[in-house]
Specification:
The chain has 381 residues and is of the alpha/beta class. The protein has 16 helices and 6 strands. The longest helix is centred in the middle third of the chain and has 24 residues. Bound molecules: iron/sulfur cluster. The site of iron/sulfur cluster (SF4) has 10 residues, from helix 4 and helix 5.
């Protein structure tokens, strides 16, 4: 499944599912990315195509040609792929899976909103796709009516999960912070993969308790001298390189605390109305004061990141520009420029990839980080 928001409809039907970024993060985390990407290359995939896409193609290629890869990286061939198209790459990804493995594709357009006046029109278009295509197709595949009651139950649990998780978020405002964006990133599975399972509530309650204890005992996220640079991180988390970045940031007493990605999922529990499950899902992206579908566009990003700079007392911005991603990199330089002028907070672009080691350069990361810390220090003088 591409792009997470469509997930819940399949969950409500009792289908087992995974989504694109989830599998990719998992592959990176178990250290299987390089060999799966190599299998993709053997199948003719270009290194310039999105590495999330390539991982799936590599896995398919390995299954088809019996190429030995880490068995934990092999997924069962799906009955259907829901392609939530948030970026142009998704169409190629869906086409690739369909052509190579014969997997049927259910395409859903998720248009990004550039101007607020476009929201009602786009929302109507999006809602029609969910009601007239996604739900009837899932009913056909599963051979049963859509389970609105189960979706309501899932949302009831999600509302509780998000409420506790938001309390954990608040700890990012503490100075020093008691956890990092990386900790937050690796805590996302109970929300996604266990969607609707009350164990997600227990997970975040335990996490909240741990954060409260750290605060009481005065144990910050990084020690022993505590934090010197509080940073914004834009774009995907570098799933296969979380440790690498940590080892580069921590010696400088630098800590990443916020970002648009990860923040985007279910930010407001009050918007979750289990009595109206389908509308809740549509509203999550195309309604409210700050519709999430606007944050991917540069205008929405400016607004969102500006708020984060103020709310989380940030000193600098790292724009992680994944070389193969078609979505997050849009206008990152302009965003830095405008926010720097408005808030006096400098930023740098670090080019790399969330998964592909061939696209990650230590010396480039080191140089850009040094530049960022020098800029912040200069502003402080
Ligand atoms: S290009 Fe970026 S947004 Fe698009 S599918 Fe790949 S990782 Fe996702």
């Amino acid at each position: 499944m591409g792009f997470a928001p469509t997930f819940i409809f399949a969950f409500a039907m009792g289908m087992k599912c995974h989504f694109m970024a989830g599998y990719s993060a998992y592959c990176g985390g178990i250290g299987a990315a390089a060999e799966v990407l190599q299998a993709a290359e053997m199948g003719g995939d270009l290194a310039e195509s999105c590495s999330y896409h390539r991982l799936h193609m590599g896995m398919a290629e390995a299954v088809k040609r019996n190429i030995p890869i880490n068995p934990d990286a092999i997924l069962p061939i799906p009955d259907i792929m829901i392609a939530g198209r948030l970026c142009p790459e998704m169409a190629y990804y869906a086409e690739g899976l369909n052509r190579r493995l014969g997997v049927p594709v259910l395409p859903v357009e998720f248009p990004i909103v550039f101007d607020r006046e476009d929201v009602p029109r786009i929302k109507k278009y999006f809602a029609a796709q969910i009601k007239e295509t996604v739900i009837p197709t899932l009913e056909k595949v599963c051979g049963k009516p859509f389970d609105y009651d189960r979706m309501s139950e899932i949302l009831t649990v999600l509302k509780k999960v998000v409420t506790v998780r938001n309390k954990c978020w608040e700890f990012f405002k503490e100075k020093p912070s008691y956890w990092t964006l990386w900790d937050y990133g690796v805590s996302i599975a109970p929300l996604f993969y266990m969607m609707g399972d009350p164990v997600g509530i227990t997970y975040y309650e335990k996490l909240l308790k741990e954060l409260q204890e750290r605060k009481e005992k005065g144990i910050p996220a990084i020690g022993p001298e505590g934090e010197k640079y509080r940073l914004y991180w834009d774009g995907w988390l570098p799933w296969a390189f979380l440790g690498k970045f940590m080892r580069k940031l921590t010696p400088h007493a630098a800590v990443c605390l916020t970002g648009r990605y990860l923040w985007e999922f279910y930010p407001d529990p009050d918007m979750i109305d289990p009595e109206h499950p389908v509308e809740t899902w549509i509203n999550l992206y195309y309604d409210g004061k700050e519709p999430l579908a606007m944050e991917y566009a540069p205008k929405g990003a400016l607004h969102e990141i500006g708020n984060l700079i103020e709310d989380y007392s940030l000193d600098g911005m790292i724009m992680f520009s994944s070389k193969t991603c078609r979505l997050w990199n849009i206008s990152q330089l302009d965003v830095i420029d405008m926010l720097e002028k408005k808030y006096g907070v400098p930023g740098v672009i670090i080019e790399g990839d969330m998964i592909d080691p061939a696209m990650v350069s230590d010396s480039q990361i080191d140089t850009r980080l040094e530049a960022l810390f020098e800029l912040i220090d200069a502003r402080r003088r």
